[in-house]
Amino acid sequence: MTILEKIKTGRLILDGGMGSLLQAKGITCPSEFANLYHRDVVEEIHRSYYRAGSDAVSANTFSVNPLRHDKELCLQMLEGAFQAANAAREEGKYVLLDVGPTGKLLAPYGDLSFEDAYESFLFVIEHSMQYRPDAVFIETMNDSYETKAAVLAAKEFGLPVFVGNVYDASAKLMTGADIPAMVAMLEGLKVDAFGLNCSLGPEQMSELVKTFAEYSSTPILVKPNAGLPREEGGKTVYDVSADDFAERMAEAVKNGGNLIGGCCGTTPDFIKKTVEKIADIVPVLPTKKHKTLVSSYTHALEIGKIPLLVGERINPTGKKRFKQALRENDVAYILNEGTAQEERGAHILDVNVGLPEIDEVEMLDTVVCQLQAVTDLPLQIDTVHPGAMERALRHYNGKPLVNSVDGKQESLDAILPLVGKYGGTLICLTMDEKGIPTTAEGRAEIARKIIREAEKYGIDRDELIFDPLTLTVSSDANAGRVTLDSLTRIKEELGVKTSLGVSNVSFGLPAREMLNGAFFLLALEHGLDLAIMNPLSDEMLKSYRTYLALTGKDADFSGYIPFAETHATSLVPTGKTAMAEEGKTPLEHAIVKGLKDGAHAEAQRLLQTKEPLQIIDEVIIPALNAVGKGFEEKRVYLPQLLMSADAAKEAFSAIKQALPPSEGKDKIVLATVKGDIHDIGKNIVRVLLENFGFSVIDLGKDVSPEKIVQATVEHQCKLVGLSALMTTTVPYMAETIALLREQAPFAKVVVGGAVLTQEYADKIGADRYCADAMATVRYAQEVFA
Amino acid sequence: MTALSIPVPEISVKEVLYYMRAGQDESARAIAEEGVSLVRRAADCKIVYERFPFSRTDDTVTIGSWTICSKSLSAHLKECREVVVFGATAGIGVDRVITASGNRSGALSLAVDSAGGVLVEAVCDRLEELIGGKRVFRYSPGYGDFPLSEQREMANLLKLEKTIGVTLTEGLMLRPTKSVTAIIGIL
Q: Any residues with CB less than 8 A from the CB of B67 and at least 6 apart, and which?
């Protein structure tokens, strides 16, 4: 019987702790070294687990990873570990390759890239294949993203994959994911069994198994610690006895646990007693849950319960400003489009950055990863470029919505394999080679074809959401009717979820928002589950909030009332927010006082009488100068300076819409140097430089010297700003400067950051040290004068 | 070794304003409060600590098999009979709100970053309360001549990754950012 066949019976007994047993036998070196020096002891421990009733033991490879030890040593450790495990292996029993975490935190919050993590796991798994493990057991993972990297590596070799994640008492991973989020992601990746290990005792875990059983259609793995550790006479002891452990594990099994074992502090005795205790309990086989889930790195959303909003604003179609942002690599603008929609209540964000003249693969990857640093909303990856789709799906932390596939064979062949591999809930457009059928039946027929094709790639219909397509009523007065009928028909006949891009319906007609809002309301009543719409539109939100309130889907009006309140206030004229002080225009006042809303409104008001450039030169820049001067003279403090900068930014955003896209501005490259992940200081400098009219190419944090030089040369920047917080990263700053001198001798270099001083700056060959952001602005003005 | 999750301690707005270098300027109070509330919601405070006997020479401090070459640390612990080695973190959620706010507003991101700093210090204070007794102030790698490179040894000793989810970068910085490791001498 293969290990997967064994799991289908509903039960597989795993082993217990290794490290604590090695210690008990007097071996004090880290466990993985025991593979080299005490192979016989490792083998004996495996044997004792098999004797205790384990069906599978984990080879002693938990800490074997090229990020922890050098590769040659890793290979020796793997060899030793598998020699021990395979020598102990009994007929009909199994050996697992055990894969533990790298010990590093992945980007964007740590300094390990997803692909480097993937490569490190790939190395271990690839070099273990010769020892013929029965499955890969990825365990003790406290980060969803690292888990995904390991699973993708394991999937390369066709072995069954099991995953154990570390949940804390609040049922979350260290990096934030809850159980439904992990279920969504791991089922999307087609992991063969997953659940919990380490950290918690059996009693707490047994409770959490219930949550797994509610969401998961996959066998559940339970490997608790022997309770909580404490020190006793210099030794770590755990507070749950083998008998109590077995008792609690019986509960876990009744709650749905299938792969049963122990983690830290458990011994063969724990396993033996557990096996005896659960012998008479009939295994609970996992059942299909038929939930349509999407997830981020924190939470999952279930589609089909109440209708959800997908914000459509991250999309260049018909948006001049957005296209400009894409061309100028202005990711911050795009991220702001995301957070603005989140604030308006979007549940999911659509991400489309397709523009013929940019590298969409790179851009989509960047935007998806950076959005996941600023919002925890699940994302909908929207591209017609299969290469861009694959990279984004690979690097997405969670299970995304995928937009989209249609009935054309070419589309099915390109997209379905990707969703099959990486997981995702797929938007399916009911059109094919012949176009969009004009009848509801025609669209339902295409839907049936897509369902059949998806099954070939192991994609269940629960994973499919059908979009019957909205056509504009101005070209066919019946178009709205057909779309609404198709919606009902596809949903009822095929039992699938539905989505619509609502806004198309009004194309070519005046007062589009009014029509969109009404059509949205109709679509909701016809069973729409997912609306791709503009959350900044009041009409759309009115339809949504009132619909939920009127149909019992917002029973306590907790969605409606706050919306109604903000809506009421938005009708009050806002002109009085910034009262002018003597001798100052209201806009100047708003900027000096740091009033964001006031600055926006006043800038708009001024546009009625003044030219945009006039406002910038005569009002905004003088106001900023006044605040900047106050800061230099220590009358104004840093927060005030930044609040003024925020207000000025608001004023600019109001004015920018009236400005032609600017060309040939003074460009400055900014970066926090390699190895350093502190970027608040650099960000403050960026905000102020932008305020003063400079165009900033912000390369972010932890940026290699090569990348900085490349950007400097590409944009012919006369000024480069480098930031470092730690003494350990200053050498990279020196290295960057040296490389700049060699390849971009035209550029001046200004440095800043907590550890820098004028002396330090001189030593590493910078042109200037600036102690704060205003000083940097002044220096930039000098350079570009 | 004791590893605990603790409730989010009070974050003093006054302290946050001080970290923000707000001087006497009260106009930043509202934004400091917003920063505090964002950080409070995102925080997940964890601590790990262990008491150890130690020995010292003028140039070194030895804890078990770990010898730290540091005159300043040795002098600092002169009167002490044992040490507590600890790690504390405000959690990865705080890094997320720092990044997210940085995108929205410079002032807010300064407030959030500062609130995170105040929070992790408050977590350390809470830990010191738990330790009790008479103590000298906490001393971290990178301070005085206590080499930053000892951060690795700290991480191994306290199993920081496993106990409180704190990892080291190549440059020996702690991730999540708002984390502290230190040695406290017990008098």
A: B60, B61
Q: Are A363 and A384 in contact (CB under 8 A)?
A: no
Q: Are residues A87 and A231 in the same domain?
A: yes
**Subunit contact A726:B92, Cβ cutoff 8 A:** no
Contact residues on chain B for A754, CB-CB shorter than 8 A: none
Phi, psi of A402 (to 5 degrees): -120, 120
Q: How far, in Å, CA of B109 to CA of B32, rounded?
A: 10
The verdict on A326 and A463 lying in the same domain is yes
Complex ipTM, two decimals? 0.76
**Mean confidence (pLDDT) of chain A:** 91
**By residue range, what is the domain housing residue A605?**
586-656
Structural domains for chain B = 2-186 (3.40.109.40)
Count A/B contacts: CB-CB distance under 8 Å: 142
Residue A137 CB-density burial (10 A; 0-12 exposed, 13-18 middle, 19+ buried): buried
CB contact under 8 A, A175 and B98: no
**Predicted confidence (pLDDT) per residue in B84-140, tens digit:** 999 999 999 999 999 888 777 888 999 999 999 999 999 999 999 999 889 999 999
Is A680's CB within 8 Å of B96's CB? no
Chain B stretch 98-127, residues whose beta carbon is closer than 8 A to a beta carbon of chain A: 98-100, 102-111, 113
3-state helix, strand, coil in chain A (%, to 5): 50, 15, 35
Burial of A424 (0-12, 13-18, 19+ CB in 10 A): buried
Cα distance between residue A196 and residue A217, in whole Å: 15
Chain A residues with CB-CB distance to B27 below 8 A: 593-594, 639-640, 643
Tokens of B180: 């502290």
Number of residues assigned to chain B? 187
- Using a CB-CB cut-off of 8 Å, the residues of chain A touching B52 are none
Task: State whether A336 and B104 contact (CB < 8 Å).
Answer: yes
**Chain B residues touching A297 at Cβ < 8 A:** none
